[in-house]
Amino acid sequence: MSAKHCRFAQRMTNDKVYAAGLLIRALDPATQPPAIRAFLSAELDLLSDIVRPGTRMIDIGCGTGRHLAFLGERLRLGIGVDYEFTYIVEAQRRVTNANLRFIAADATAVPLHTTFDLATCLTNTWGTMSNPTGVLDEMRRLAPQRRCRLLSVFSQTSIPARREWYRRFGHEVREETADFLLTEGGLRSEHFSEARLRTMIGDCDIRPLGDVAYAVRF
Ligand SMILES: C[S@@+](CC[C@H](N)C(=O)[O-])C[C@H]1O[C@@H](n2cnc3c(N)ncnc32)[C@H](O)[C@@H]1O
């Protein structure tokens, strides 16, 4: 990374980018190129397929709670965790089902001692987190059964669509590497090959999700 880009990254880390409300703009369909919209829709289809009625689920990096809200009454219990307090407040305002709860906490230190049937980290949330290994460990603790942890992450084929998406919500890409995009506004978002996912996660199942992402069960 050049000295100039180091200065960018120091000035705007992802937590500051989220605190500035990036998620709200990113979820506006008007900012989303067709490949991104298809991916978001494929993610919902996947959740519909795998989540059985009565499931206890925790969604890590839940943002404003849209995936838990989508599953709604199908869940016996749904807990959303996000470190950005304003997103948690918005989730609590929007989602009033008694079985769904939202808490502000860091993904590497979730203040819960119960376990769940399913732990998710969706929409490349894992690819924006500063301690991805710590998040995997926490997902394993919270959902101890093998293959009951689900990530959805961007693949390398996502790069053109993400460049366009980020540009439309005001984050022109300033740096592209084999592993990440870094925007002018300081958003750092990773993308993954299957080999890199296996190195980082270990034993896992990897399936394509739309044309631009993978669903990973571990
Ligand atoms: C790409 S957004 C996706 C939000 C949500 N999953 C969705 O798809 O609508 C990533 C979310 O992860 C949250 N986040 C990032 N790092 C986090 C961490 N270490 N602990 C908790 N939340 C985190 C951000 O605040 C943001 O809401």
Structure in words:
- There is one protein chain.
- By secondary structure, the protein is of the alpha/beta class.
- It has one domain: Vaccinia Virus protein VP39 (Rossmann fold, 3-Layer(aba) Sandwich).
- Helices cover 38% and strands 23% of the residues.
- The N terminus is likely disordered.
- The structure holds S-adenosylmethionine.
- The site of S-adenosylmethionine has 18 residues, from loops.
Sequence stretches where pLDDT stays below 50 over 5 or more residues: 1-11
CA-to-CA gap between the ends? 32 Å
Q: Strand portion, in percent? A: 15-25%
Q: Hetero groups bound?
A: S-adenosylmethionine
- Quickly name the level 1 CATH class: Alpha Beta
Which second-level CATH architecture applies? 3-Layer(aba) Sandwich
Total number of distinct structural domains? 1
Helix/strand order, N-terminal first: HHHHEHEHEEHEHEEEHEE
Biggest sheet: strands side by side, in what order? Answer: 3-2-1-4-5-10-9
Radius of gyration based on Cα positions = 16 Å
Give the CATH superfamily.
Vaccinia Virus protein VP39
Averaged pLDDT: 94
**Morphology:** globular
Q: Per CATH, what is the topology?
A: Rossmann fold
Instruction: Please report the total strand number as a whole number.
Output: 10
Q: What's the helix count?
A: 9
Report the sheet with the most strands, covering strand number, pairing sense and barrel closure.
7 strands, mixed
